[in-house]
TrEMBL record:
The gene coding this protein: murD
Phylogenetic placement of the source organism: Bacteria, Pseudomonadati, Bacteroidota, Flavobacteriia, Flavobacteriales
NCBIfam families, per database record: murD
Compartments where located: Cytoplasm
The protein, known as: UDP-N-acetylmuramoylalanine--D-glutamate ligase
Record pathway: Cell wall biogenesis; peptidoglycan biosynthesis
PANTHER family noted in UniProt: UDP-N-ACETYLMURAMOYLALANINE--D-GLUTAMATE LIGASE (PTHR43692:SF1)
Function: Cell wall formation. Catalyzes the addition of glutamate to the nucleotide precursor UDP-N-acetylmuramoyl-L-alanine (UMA).
Enzymatic reactions: UDP-N-acetyl-alpha-D-muramoyl-L-alanine + D-glutamate + ATP = UDP-N-acetyl-alpha-D-muramoyl-L-alanyl-D-glutamate + ADP + phosphate + H(+)
Length: 463
């Protein structure tokens, strides 16, 4: 958002301080939309929810029960353009004709994160990144909740707005996507985390990686020197952006390769975290989560915990007993000495890179879905070393077949999860892994990555 827009929008948002009283239009009747509608109504707004698709029955019932006006399978433009403020679901792109119309009418468009943050005085930890943000957010909350009153929201679980209304935790850990950050104005987390930045969702950013990087850095745009930015110092995209676009925040980098004075680094098998000369040491040998990427996730989460004065012993114990996230390198079952692993949340190449890197046995790899302009080159080394067969699961597998066809003896395509798992069962031998790590979005064959992961787990259990 350009600076002049920000000024104009902030003026129009001045009613936010307490009870609203304006006309709030919510575009999208999903988790964040319905949460915003409930909070908006409680704060005195006249609320209208509009969804171009079909609103799920459970959300319809909530809207009806709370006497909130709604429509689905259409947008009544004349009604929407009367809004004082519009909360847009993160799934709706800025390029949508209706959003362009709303902006043309100089009506502020904000995200749920922006709206809900106006109604809480909680300490906010905001976590973004291309990969690892769900694991890092869940792990951070897992550590903090041992000593603090803390909610987990954003891109995960119950909506932030709903939690502000019903629970009003003293602290929040928010997993925040670039789409949510695109529509903030004043939102400012006390602690921001950027796990990493690799090309993703470029179709939403005019296929310009720089635009996507800038979007991620919006998490720190309103921070001051009293706030903190924790980030991966090994990530070239982050390091370059920071060099050319300095932020106001106090910087706390983490690294696997460099020695960090203020922040976190790896010294042999220990994570060393130093903040204002106060140091803690965490052995990595007992981490519940495996893989180099999870050492980084642990560094980020532990740095947050250290900042918020969580006891060292509590941090150590929490890192050791954390169970991990569903659909992220989730070990499903071992059948005939073959381990089946659900990594459905790997919706881009970089996430699959981490999955393949962590494989320690010959692997039958299930890949495919809606390609977001993927470049698979960084996977070649692992495919050559570790992958014995590839099962392409998607409507259009032509690019995958062409890219990997000469690398493995066995490459098969299917459009059914049950068939993909049966094929994998036939190919895999004792000691092998069967890995679902799609590197693609799920929308060609599935409702979302959760649906894809659940179908995989069900198919494995039905073998």
């Amino acid at each position: 958002m350009k600076k002049e827009n920000k000024k104009q929008s902030s003026e129009q948002l001045s009613s936010f301080g307490g009870v609203g009283g304006g006309f709030l239009v919510v575009l999208g009747g999903g988790e964040s939309g319905v949460g915003t509608a409930l909070l908006g109504k409680a704060k005195g707004y006249n609320v209208f929810v509009s969804d171009k698709g079909k609103i799920k029955e459970k959300y319809k019932q909530v809207l009806i029960h709370n006497a909130i006006e709604w429509e689905d399978e259409k947008h009544s433009e004349s009604e929407i353009l009367k809004a004082d403020i519009v909360m847009k679901s993160p799934g709706i792109p800025d390029k949508a004709p209706l959003v362009k119309q709303i902006r043309k009418h100089k009506i502020p468009v904000i995200s749920e994160i922006e709206f809900a943050s106006k109604f809480t005085k909680a300490t906010i930890v905001g976590i973004t990144g291309s990969n690892g943000k769900t694991t890092t957010a869940t792990l951070t909350q897992h550590i903090l909740k041992q000593q603090l009153n803390v909610g987990l929201a954003g891109n995960i679980g119950d909506s932030f707005a709903k939690q502000v209304l019903e629970d009003d935790f003293k602290n929040y850990v928010l997993e925040i996507s670039s789409f949510q950050l695109d529509d903030i104005i004043d939102f400012k987390p006390k602690i921001a985390v950027i796990t990493n930045i690799t090309p993703d969702h470029l179709d939403r950013y005019d296929y310009q990686f720089e635009n996507y990087i800038a979007s991620k850095f919006r998490i720190a745009i309103n921070q001051t020197k009293d706030d903190y930015l924790i980030y991966d110092a090994d990530d070239k995209a982050i390091a370059n952006h920071l060099k050319n676009n300095p932020v106001q925040s106090t910087l706390l980098p983490f690294s696997l390769t460099k020695t960090i004075e203020n922040g976190a680094y790896l010294d042999q098998q220990n994570i060393i975290i130093t903040i204002d000369n106060n140091q803690i040491i965490m052995p990595t040998t007992k981490l519940a989560l495996e893989g180099k990427h999870n050492i980084k996730n642990a560094m980020a989460a532990s740095t947050v915990a250290h900042l918020l004065k969580i006891r060292k012993q509590t941090i150590r114990e929490s890192l050791e007993n954390f169970q991990g996230v569903e659909h992220r390198l989730e070990q499903v079952l071992k059948i005939n000495k073959v381990q089946y692993i659900n990594d459905s949340k790997a919706t881009n190449v970089n996430a699959t890179y981490y999955a393949l890197e962590s494989m320690d046995a010959p692997t039958v790899w299930i890949v495919g879905g809606t390609d977001k302009g993927n470049n698979y080159e960084e996977l070649f080394q692992f495919v050559n070393e570790k992958v014995k067969a590839i099962i392409c699961l998607g409507v259009d597998n032509e690019k995958l077949m062409r890219t990997f066809g000469n690398m493995v003896d066995n490459i098969i395509e299917t459009q059914f999860m049950s068939e993909a798992v049966k094929i994998a069962y036939k190919i895999a031998e004792a000691g092998d892994n069967v890995l679902l790590s799609p590197a693609c979005a799920s929308f060609d064959l599935f409702e979302n990555y959760e649906d894809r992961g659940r179908q995989f787990k069900n198919a494995v259990r039905n073998l």
